[in-house]
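Protein entry
_____________
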Amino acid sequence: MSAEKINPYKDSKLGKKEQVAQMFDNISENYDGLNRVISLGIDIKWRKKVVEIVSKNNPKQILDIATGTGDLALMMSDLNPDRIVGLDISAGMLEVGKHKIAKANLSDKIEMIVGDSEAMPFEDATFDAITVSFGVRNFANLDKGLKEIARVLKPTGVLAVLETSNPVKFPFKQGYKLYTNIFLPTVGKLFSKDKSAYSYLSESANSFPFGEAFNNILQKNGFTHTKAEPVTFGVATIYTASK
């Protein structure tokens, strides 16, 4: 089944977009702590790599889509841009993020907006850099979301996407299957009040197109110079592209 067809709540009448917003609202309070446990803290290293990629462009206007609680947006403030916008469909996640930003005294630099990545409230060619970490697989319509990113990215801008992928080499492939099918949902069920959320996150991770397959999707939607760089044995991949 394609990632777009996988929804957090099997018996819900809501569309994917609304379900994803509801799910992240539900898990927003303990998402950061749980995320560190589930990723064994490696996700911080991956995000630093994304910041490094973006820094080469010396961006003044940065957009972080599916910003969640603002981890990546906060890290990118070190690049000293004029403005960072964090966009997310979940108001609950953004509330947690706003507290973190206020604590870091960065409320004047980082703006958090509730919004839909498939219909963004920005002019064409606004941003020098656009990042999405662990968010593209939650898009209800991937093509539409990517076309919209291309629209608001400057012609000289850079897109950096960090997303889960599936290791292809033995024994990492087998180990990752156990991890996503058993460890991730079990830990999620133990520590989260939303039992479906972490099953959805592992299911969508397993079915999302990665590597060349995702590069092809980027190219189809208006991107060039696409590059996929697997990290940590291929459990995640960092994609870079320009318009």
The chain has a mean pLDDT of 94. The first helix runs from residue 16 to 38.
